[in-house]
Amino acid sequence: MLNIGWFSTGRDEAARHLLQAVQESIYSGEIKAKISFVFSNREPGESQESNLFFQLVHSYNLPLIYLSHKKFKTASGTEDWRTKYDRGVMSKIEKFSLDLCVLAGYMLIVGEEMCQQYNMINLHPAPPGGPKGSWQEVIWQLIENKSDKAGAMMHLVTPKLDEGPVVAYCLFSIVDEPFQEYWQKGDKQKLFHLIRQHELVREFPLIISTLKAFSEKQIGIKDGKVVDDKGKFIGGYDLSDAVNQATPAILK
Fold it and tell me: What b-and-e string marks burial along 200-231, b requiring 16 or more CB atoms within 10 Å of the CB?
């Protein structure tokens, strides 16, 4: 069984929905795994949204571990507080035997020591080799570059933001309908919202399909690289078919 460490700031409703989706997939047996703990860089009482997230964690009887980065930074008063903070996090989770850590709305960049200690994956709303940055920045770059495909990927976490090796990904065309007429009209605002709509509905299926692939040993991590079930290094596992089939019919 795959042992997962779940990292989330718990800052919004999406963080709760993602935990719900994965936990329900575990309950159903679709993902053969367990979430060993949930870690947050906020503590109870720090935010109403994170409080709601913590309530959800407790409802699943999952161990909740937290360390407020705001309080830690203030107390540390040094420039290298991030390195010390990550060491504090690792000391809190070292008792768990983990196969994989999932960053699910975790709003801190993980430092080098922690990346080396654990296999950590994160969602980035762009195709492999695509734009970096926030989802807004990604979509505008896709439009400006007149890209023919958009997508999302799960990648290994490294200290360099959004530059870790691709673990799994999905792609979809943005040149055919319903996108084509807005390219022809030059309506960038409509394209922006349409691309985001189609990318967003694929995020949860991609995360679930990726964790399922890990739990079934279709993919793994070796020496900081992604391997297939035969131990061969691959440049990412294409889950486009599975993810696109899981999207609402209205978007197909």
Answer: eebbbbbbbbbbbbbbeeebbbeeeebeeeee
pLDDT tens digits, one per residue of 143-193: 999 999 999 999 999 877 767 899 999 999 999 999 999 999 999 999 999
Q: Residue 22: how many CB atoms within 10 A of its CB?
A: 22
CB 144 within 8 A of CB 122: no
Domain-by-domain residue ranges, the chain? 1-118, 128-151+165-252
Q: How far apart are CA 86 and CA 228, in angstroms?
A: 30
The pair of three-digit structure tokens given for residue 224, joined into one six-digit string = 């900081």
Report how far apart, in Å, the C-alpha atoms of 66 and of each of 6, 191, 215 are.
11, 39, 26
The residues that bridge with 128 in the sheet, in sequence order, are none
The answer to whether residues 2 and 33 touch, using CB atoms and an 8 Å cutoff, is yes
Query: Looking at the DSSP assignment, which residues form a beta bridge with residue 65?
Result: 39
Matching residue, tokens 């935990």? 19
Give the N- to C-terminal CA distance of the chain in Å, as an integer: 34
Nearest to 215 by CA among 225, 224, 223, 207: 207
Determine the angle formed by the axes of helices 135-144 and 188-215, rounding to 10 degrees.
Answer: 120
225-243 per-position pLDDT tens digit: 899 999 999 989 999 999 9
Q: How far apart are CA 224 and CA 181, in angstroms?
A: 43
C-alpha to C-alpha distance for 33 and 36, rounded to whole angstroms: 9
Judged by DSSP in three states, 160 sits in: coil
Q: Note the CATH architecture for domain 1-118.
A: 3-Layer(aba) Sandwich (3.40)
